[in-house]
Amino acid sequence: MLEGIFVEGLIYGLLALGVFITFRVLDFPDLTVDGSFPLGAAVMAKSLLTGIPLPIAFLLAFISGGLAGLTTALIHNKLKVPSLLASILTMIMLYSINMRIMKAPFISLNRVPTLLTKFVELNKNFIDNRSISYLILFLIIIIITILLLNQFFHTDMGLTLGALGDNEQMIINQGMNPEHLKIIGLSLSNGLVAIAGGFIAQYQKFADINMGIGVVIIGLASVMIGELILKSNKILILLLRVVIGATIYRGILFLSRPLLVYPTDHKLFTGILIIVILTVTKFRKKGAENG
User: Fold this and answer.
1) Do residue 273 and residue 129 come from a single domain?
2) What is the mean pLDDT of the chain?
């Protein structure tokens, strides 16, 4: 059971990293996540069912999420639509696109080979616990992802993305085009989210058309919990604390199950949790200012 919490925390950590890029790095409130998450799951499920090799399936999931982010960026940049509305429009359109990809509201992957089943089969002589195998796999994936993102954010492009979120006018004054940067940031963010959706589909052994509802809140809660427990300006620590926050969130959600009467109550609980975190953060800031 404990291994399951950590596994889910690591998978949703990928989602939270995507949310971190838009909400914290770009300062761009992006609800596209609620559409790109099931998009990744739909593309992954359909790819596996049609026999597409796993590396290509992951690439297709990442590209599909990137295209979703690109769509939001273009609506915002070219039509001058506010960021929140642009992402809502993309999210709504993605519901129809996801249904067209899936051809049904639900796709089962029970008898389909996935990365998870292949990893378990590969290590069956060394690890006889499936949950432990999953945990090792996603630890490897998260470590690689964080290291790659850390490397990216130390490049000129990554540093410029960070500066865009802090001061867009400064980027314009330096002769750079913020529209291009937003396209890169939103595409990268939603590509990561789509990959997370693809992993969740493999982990749960199904893809569902409604599995993206409210996932942006899960990502935000993970980011905020991480910010509450770790203070740093180093990008590596910032990325790491997002994943830690996602894991803690899954743990809190598990411990709160006896209090939740209906399965959908976890969304109410998540909303209350975010409000509590915002309140604690506000009082912390006031205390720091008065101190």
Assistant:
1) no
2) 92
Q: Assess whether pLDDT exceeds 70 at residue 289.
A: no
- pLDDT tens figures, 19-60: 999 999 999 999 999 999 999 999 999 999 999 999 999 999
Domain span at 43: 1-259
DSSP3 helix / strand / coil % (the chain, rounded to 5):
80, 0, 20
Q: What's the pLDDT score for residue 172? A: 85
Tally of domains within the chain: 2
Handedness of CA 168, 194, 210, 103 (dihedral sign): positive
User: Do 270 and 174 belong to one domain?
Assistant: no
Question: How many other CB atoms are found less than 10 A from the CB of residue 61?
Answer: 28
Residues 151 and 284 in one domain: no
If asked whether residues 200 and 277 sit together in one domain, one would say: no
* Cα-based distances in Å from 281 to 30, 216, 235, 278, 284: 22, 20, 20, 5, 5
| CATH number of the domain bearing residue 11 | 1.10.3470
Tell me, yes or no, whether 130 and 270 share the same domain. Answer: no
Contacts 24+ apart (CB under 8 A), 128-134: 129/3, 131/3, 131/4, 131/7, 132/3, 134/3, 134/7, 134/203
Asked whether residue 114 carries a pLDDT value surpassing 80, the answer given is: yes
Angle, CA 12 vertex, CA 10 and CA 14 arms, to 5°: 80
